[in-house]
Design goal:
Blueprint: E1 6-8, E2 17-19, E3 24-26, E4 29-31, H1 34-37
Antiparallel strand pairs: 1-2, 3-4
The structure holds zinc ion (ZN) (3 copies).
One zinc ion (ZN) binds near residues 9, 16, 33 and 46.
Length: about 55
């Protein structure tokens, strides 16, 4: 009975949609990967093809 909430990754150039349960939460934002969560300061891309981040 878990309604899985899907959120778009909060990284602007990222197109990924992640479930809130799997996302990396930072503040009130949800990210698909460590790279997105840290703002791509040290990690480029998100590991998913088709994303421009
Ligand atoms: Zn992505
Ligand atoms: Zn992302
Ligand atoms: Zn990203």
């Amino acid at each position: 009975m878990s309604g899985v909430t899907m959120m778009k990754c909060a990284c602007e150039t990222c197109l990924c949609v992640v479930s809130v349960a799997d996302a990396i939460k930072k503040g009130d934002k949800y990210y698909c990967s460590q790279g997105c969560a840290e703002g791509h300061k040290t990690i480029k891309g998100c590991g998913h093809s088709g994303c421009g981040c």
